[in-house]
Amino acid sequence: xxxxxxxxxxxxxxxxxxxxxxxxxxxxxxxxxxxxxxxxxxxxxxxxxxxxxxxxxxxxxxxx
Length: 64
Hints:
By secondary structure, the chain is mainly alpha-helical. Helix content is 39%, strand content 0%. The protein has one helix and no strands.
């Protein structure tokens, strides 16, 4: 009697899938994602410089 009898059996390993070929739509989607990522990085750097994002608005005084 081995220690593994009666327990769940490990599933057989699945063969690796081949890398799928990319068509024009996939290439356009990847390019769009890269551009969005670059825009987000630029916005982060601009925001990191400091300063208020929105100025103005109604200010309430402490007096009543």
